Amino acid sequence: MGGERHGWKKNPAALDTSSSYLVCGSMAGCEATTALLPRSGVQGKDESWGMVIPTEVREDEPGGGEKLRILVSEDTAHQISTDPWYQVGFVLTTGINSSYVLGYSQSIMVPLGWIFGSAGLLLAAAISLYANSLVARLHEVGGRRQIRYRDLAGHVYGRKMYGLTWALQYVNLFMINAGYIILAGQALKALYVLYRDDGVLKLPYCIGIAGIVCALFAFGIPHLSALRIWLGFSTLFSLVYIVVAFVLSLRNGLNSPARDYSIPRLHNRIFSTIGATANLVFAYNTGMLPEIQATIKEPAIKNMEKALWFQFTIGGLPLYAVTFMGYWAYGSSTSAYLLSSVRGPVWVKTIANIASFLQTVIALHIFASPMYECLDTKFGREGNPFSLQNVLFRILVRGGYLTINTLVSAVLPFLGDFMSLTGALSTLPLTFVLANHMYLKVKKKQLSASKKTWHWLNVVGFSCLAVIAAIAALRLIVSDSKRYHLFADL
């Protein structure tokens, strides 16, 4: 792909045909101040599998003097290096403040209680910020930007890990997308029940409607960077249902008798506690940080760190507010969808459910974008993304993907247990185990003995947690499978 497609300019002086390599100047994330990189069209052993990597260099620096910087991107149909850090910050914030937050009072606070639930949310935020920062600092290694998680893993470990990482990430994002479709279906059903609680419109039907709307939105948004104004709407929708849930929960709590905050004594309490611990990790992490970072403007590492700090400070406040208030108001009896617990004017709850539904449609697009990027790059056409042939391509390919996703969501509406399993098998390894181990591999010559020990402790500790969480999720799946049936109307 040419540099012009990404908004970069080629420097003809640098493309000297007399040499097989180009020399780059100092670059954030490089192991040294200069590096040798194969010329565009020359493949080395570590290049991505069979792909020709175009070499790009920026214009001369203002004020005279030339400072070459290698910006190498693998072929992609989506935009790279176009978004300011605050837009990426809103992408991340949209993910953590999606309609999933309406379930954290029940899925995190009820099994863990006030002390461990509150401390766990804060500790998980700190650990997640640290782990994501490690991945962000590995964005520019090997002389090029690693725009996909699998590219980074492939560069560090080799071909087999490239494939395994892609499989883990795909399963993780597929399940997250299915969860979003279920959430959108729940919002539609809650909206229907406000006016007609006759059982005619069942959850599977609502999930089907939600899948159709998500597909229509996907047809019109060609890539992640094109969300732009939709991120503003997403933030507005998030604030609507979070503020409504917060205010009505506060009012209900002030007018209600003492609540029971004791942790339920279930026969599978240990597994529920482990599952809630895994949900703490799920609340903050995407499993697709390199794909999001690929859209950010240079300097990519510095700007991504700004976006991460925004996500884990200001961006996390709405999550804490609605989670703690929901648990305070309803205690151990809070529902898995907080808007089903709150009592208040019908019109207010109507607006909140509509906002929840619309925000979920936008948020799903973020977590589906790696799959869209893969399909668009491999099979899509270049040129105007809104040309008839490109729109028809998206209708066919994205429509097929979301049809499968919607069908799985309708068949298994009790998907939370399966999401806990995929979180244990993919989110934990991708976000924590691989992040620390890749950092060790890439930066091993620069780390002191104490830092190496710290990263190894993280690798071993999170690996053990992933195994334990997977066992707990399997136990909960077996237990819930006895209570629920396929296409259940929950």
Please tell me about this protein's structure.
- The chain has 490 residues and is mostly helical.
- The chain folds into 2 domains: 75 residues, no CATH class; 332 residues, Hydantoin permease (Orthogonal Bundle).
- It is 61% helix and 2% strand.
- Strands 1-2 form a two-stranded antiparallel sheet. It has a two-stranded antiparallel sheet with strand order 3-4.
- A hairpin with a 2-residue loop joins strand 3 and strand 4.
- Helix 4 packs across helix 5, helix 4 runs antiparallel to helix 11 and helix 7 packs across helix 14.
- The radius of gyration is 23 Å and the shape is globular.
In short:
The protein has 490 residues and is mainly alpha-helical. 61% of the residues lie in helices and 2% in strands.
Number of domains: 2
Identify the overall geometry: globular
Strand segment tally: 4
Largest sheet, if any?
2 strands, antiparallel
Decide which structural class fits the backbone.
Answer: mainly alpha
Helix and strand topology:
Blueprint: E1 21-24, E2 35-38, H1 85-96, H2 104-137, E3 140-141, E4 144-145, H3 149-157, H4 159-193, H5 203-220, H6 229-254, H7 269-284, H8 289-293, H9 300-312, H10 317-330, H11 346-379, H12 388-411, H13 416-443, H14 449-481
Antiparallel strand pairs: 1-2, 3-4
